[in-house]
Amino acid sequence: FSQRKSAGRLSQLMPNGRDKVLVPARIPRREVGTRAARTADQATSSNAPLESLAGGSLASRFHAWRGASGRRYICSVFPTNPCAPDGGMPDFAEAIAIAVGWDGDGHRRCISLWLCDGVPDLAARDGFVAAALAAGALEWHIHLLAADARERRAAAQDLEDCLAAVSAA
Description:
Layout (H helix, E strand, L loop, with lengths): L1 E5 L2 E5 L5 E4 L6 H16 L2 E3 L12 E5 L5 E8 L14 E9 L5 E10 L4 H13 L4 E5 L5 H20 L1
């Protein structure tokens, strides 16, 4: 059998050559409310997984953090490795690194943030890694999508402002 969509409806071509119109399953009303509440909660949260990847093999590899401006910053997720000299933090010359731990409720929390802005300062990087691991960092969230140094600094400030407000609350 083949399926085709015509005039906004999904139909299945039957062996006799006639179309059988397929009616999409209805979502129970209570699930619609739950889904809307979850989406609204994620929109107001300072961090959330990428809903577009939910259930897929890449879901655990990406995460989004929201800045004070409301802008969302997509990050690649890497596990920490306390046995490695660099704590497992990937070596990027131009990125924002967020050291992330988990709170008692199983939610991600920012421990600290570091701006890698092209000039390798190995002592500062090593200090950031050591302090983050000592504070319980379990993941490195790396934001690589800022176009230039100015945009990276603005994004880092936006994230810091939001994270400071969340931890003060």
